């Protein structure tokens, strides 16, 4: 599998892990290791004096680049401030930009997202926006200078997979920056489908963190992303309405009795 | 003694308390690696923590990285 380049960084893995939903840090460590991911998201929250262990230490130990997100932000202003806080805390100008517009579906607010992206790109951030599977918005985000576009497959944590492969294919076809399928993955075949559809990578968390055996699912996701990537490049056969025999039609024995 | 809002809780800190004192009061350990501060909604760079005194009623948010994403 070829490396994935986003902005000025190159990653050997095309699977990006969100660290949300894992029972504890040890589960994070085992799952991230099994996934082979080289980048993992974190959220910025109030310091909790009772928290034990350091997530950053765990991610450093397994060799993961830390990608802060702006999860929980509902306005461009809050998302921009959160990105600046993350830059201060983690000494990175990378951000997974999330601006949510609805608290039941957690779908992105397109206009706030675009406004925040423009501001952060202007401040020198490498912006990876979590976006709707809307080709027009994806194009606007690329035009604004985002380093990648990250359309959802279906709502965060829903496990419904990719609901609109047509839109995903349109986004893939038009984009000149990497396309990362972000959110909605439920199982390995969803991740493979994302890659077969032409995505450059997959970002997921719940499918692994809430699986019965997170490390085993992480391993499955690693294989699925690789398999989907290789299948895409291998060139699949076209879909046909009728069968096409794969055995020779000549030389078939005549077995009727005379 | 300034009464401030620290991570959503009303706290009274000693006279002359700085943002660094608030960071320690929040429970952040040691040198507070991986921690960032918002003072009244704006990011305050780490280099300014010791030189910034807390005023009465100011809002301090002390944040760090936690598990999150998707």
Secondary-structure blueprint of this entry?
The complex is a heterodimer of chains A (258) and B (70).
Chain A: E1 4-6, E2 9-11, E3 15-18, H1 25-35, E4 39-46, H2 55-61, E5 65-68, H3 76-90, E6 94-97, H4 110-122, E7 126-131, H5 135-143, E8 150-151, H6 165-174, E9 180-182, H7 188-196, E10 201-204, H8 206-209, H9 214-234
Parallel strand pairs in A: 3-4, 3-10, 4-5, 6-7, 7-8, 9-10
Antiparallel strand pairs in A: 1-2
Helix pairs in contact in A: 1-2, 1-9, 3-4, 5-6, 7-9
Chain B: E1 3-6, E2 9-12, H1 19-25, E3 35-39, E4 42-44, E5 59-67
Parallel strand pairs in B: 1-5
Antiparallel strand pairs in B: 1-2, 3-4, 3-5
What does this structure look like?
- The complex is a heterodimer of chains A (258) and B (70).
- Chain A has 258 residues and is of the alpha/beta class.
- Chain A has a single domain (4-234), classed as Alpha-Beta Barrel (TIM Barrel), CATH 3.20.20.
- In chain A, 38% of the residues lie in helices and 16% in strands.
- Chain A is built from nine helices and ten strands.
- Chain A has helices at 25-35, 55-61, 76-90, 110-122, 135-143, 165-174, 188-196, 206-209, 214-234; strands at 4-6, 9-11, 15-18, 39-46, 65-68, 94-97, 126-131, 150-151, 180-182, 201-204.
- Chain A is globular and about 90 Å long.
- The N and C termini of chain A lie far apart (58 Å).
- With 70 residues, chain B is mainly β.
- Chain B has a single domain, classed as Roll (Ubiquitin-like (UB roll)).
- The A-B interface holds A 17-22, 28, 40-51, 54-56, 66-69, 71, 81, 84-86, 88-90, 96, 156-157, 182-183, 203-206 and B 7-8, 26-28, 33-38, 41-43, 45-46, 61-70.
CATH C-level name of chain B:
Alpha Beta
* Uncertain stretches of 5 or more adjacent residues of chain A: none
Q: What number of domains of chain A?
A: 1
Physical arrangement of strands within the biggest beta sheet of chain B: 2-1-5-3-4
Strand tally of chain A is: 10
